Amino acid sequence: MLPDRKMHALLTRPQNKSGLKPLPVVIIGNGPSGICLSYLLSGNIPYFKRDSLHPHPILQRKLEEAPDVSILDQDLEYLSEGLEGRSHSPVALLFDALQRPDTDFGGTAESVLTWWHETDRVVPHLVLGRNAPGGAWHSIEGSMVTLSRGEWMGLPDLPFKDWLKQKRRGLRNNRATAEDIAQYYQHYVVRKGLQKNFRCGTVVTSVRKVSAESISNHAQKDLQDNNDSLWNFNEKSTEVFQVDGFFKTVKGDKEPFSIYAENVVLATGTYDSPTWLGVKGENLSYVHHQLSALEEAVKNNSIGIMSDPVLIVGAGLTAADAILFAHHCNIPVIHVFRRRVTDPGLIFNQLPKMMYPEYHKVHQMMKEQSAACAGPYECYVSLPEHHVLSFGKDKKCIFQDKNGYQKVYKISMALVLTGSNPNLSFLPNNGIDLAMDSDQPVSPKRNPIDVDPFTYECTQEKGLYALGPLAGDNFVRFVQGGALAVASSLLKKANKNPP
Predict the structure, then answer these.
(1) Do residues 2 and 10 make contact, with C-beta atoms less than 8 angstroms apart?
(2) Tens digit of each residue's pLDDT (9 = 90 or more) over 418-430
(3) Is 141 left (phi over 0), alpha (psi -120 to 50) or beta?
(4) Which H or E run contains 485?
(5) E strands along 23-156, which residues?
(6) What distance lies between CA 356 and its chain's CA centroid?
């Protein structure tokens, strides 16, 4: 968001010994989690809107007990107690209930929050991201329709549907395209005046604790000179975080930077590292791990109607998107997945048919078009309860079913779409020591980072926080509760809570 020259000045001014204080907060990742937290740390404080009536009577009574105290300054554990919903995080359920009171019941009740800008409660921070604000949403094919309802993609105090109306657009089946979402997040940062906190085109390569005494301070003065914040640096801190990395200039050069922070928030999501199967031949040039490879191949006419089938491995929504795309282009598909079609854990068995007709269609194809019996869908073969044994140089792929029987198919290209993992290579030991099970890699669904549920601070590393999928919150509507918890915790550290 800043010109390269300004960014260069901010992050890499020659070292000096003038005793400048470290930044209070650095946020790594500029997707919805990072944007929402930046909004809260920029002095935007939520209060219960007087005369509002929340459909949850117990929550309503609690909110009426202290209407003059901001939500950030209240006891989040007390407020969220007893709430139920589609998240395991109490604070995620709380913030969602405050912003969208009856949305799970199909209601359209307005938020019960009102927002006040309080300049004395600004916490200076930087948000570092590889792309434009919006994070991984800029890497998703623009016409893809979101799984979540459009209004669930919105951020605080700027409803997504209101923004869409300004574009004279409506929601298709209550859902939005990835392009709309990416544009909305960029617009939100500008509209809410957050640009000064965002540094795009940055890649973080290392985060580590260093002695506070050994800091040779960089150009963090730029950020602090123009800020009347009352953040009090904890003089007793013996350690701070050193964040190293580089930013990409317009010319394509890599300029290194090094900044220091009292607190670091991990909000990098999980889109970085697609999961590999770990089988022979998976590194061959025709085997890919992102849907964009199929789109590119179609665009280049390297595959088409007369090609050998495209192999799609996986039974999640990205695999379904690939099948729909190939089906639309009349490209033959072999679809391999480990689960039974009737497995209740399969995402398709959890989606309402009316709201997700295209995914329901894929599920029908998976059920009706197995290799054992021909079905009504041309150019598609389903192989449930199969797994890939190997990819050959001759583009022959060997599968095995649950009984140990093997099949061989000649394919044109393979797409392994079995999920993705976070890239935490910038942390010591890839962040494994921070996970719930410190013997296994961090995984959003199976092994998230272990955080306090009401502050989102890592239990293994004070001053380090984790948001979004890294902490097990996988939907935009629920990552915002984590941001609320982090902001509340940081404001308490900053002694900025009103009496």
Answers:
(1) yes
(2) 888 888 999 999 9
(3) beta
(4) helix 476-493
(5) 23-28, 44-48, 113-117, 125-129, 145-149
(6) 22
Q: Is 362 helix (H, G, I), strand (E, B) or coil?
A: helix
Q: Is the pLDDT at 151 greater than 70, yes or no?
A: no
Chain centre distance of CA 240: 26
Backbone φ and ψ for 52, nearest 5 degrees, come out as -75, 150
How many CB atoms are located within 10 Å of the residue 89 CB?
23
Supply the pTM of this predicted model: 0.79
89, amino acid identity: S
Task: State what percent of residues in the chain have pLDDT above 90.
Answer: 50
Query: How high is the pLDDT of residue 409?
Result: 95
Question: What is the tens place of the pLDDT at every residue in 443-489?
Answer: 888 899 999 999 999 999 999 999 998 998 877 778 899 999 999 99
Residues 6+ apart with CB under 8 A from 226: none
* Window from 165-169, 255-259, 446-450 with minimum mean pLDDT: 165-169
What is d(CA 391, CA 410) in angstroms, rounded to the nearest whole number?
A: 10
Q: Stretch 390-418: mean pLDDT, rounded?
A: 95
More confident residue, 76 or 273: 76
Query: Rounded to 5 degrees, what angle do the CA atoms 411, 356, 377 make?
Result: 40
Distance CA 490, CA 232 (A): 11
Question: CA-based angle 195:13:35, to the nearest 5?
Answer: 20
What is the rounded CA–CA span in Å between residue 109 and residue 59? 15
User: Count of CB atoms within 10 A of residue 215's CB?
Assistant: 18
The yes-or-no verdict on residue 280 having pLDDT over 60 is yes
198-200/175-177 β-pairing: unpaired
**DSSP per-residue letters across 372-427:** TS--S-TTEEEEETEEEEEE-TTSEEEEEETTS-EEEEE-SEEEE-S-EE---TTS
Residues 6+ apart with CB under 8 A from 163: 154, 184, 187, 188
Residues sharing a CB contact under 8 Å with residue 294, sequence separation 6 or more, in sequence order: 288, 303, 310, 322, 325, 326, 413, 415
Using one digit for the tens of pLDDT, what is the confidence trace for 378-394?
A: 789 999 999 999 999 99
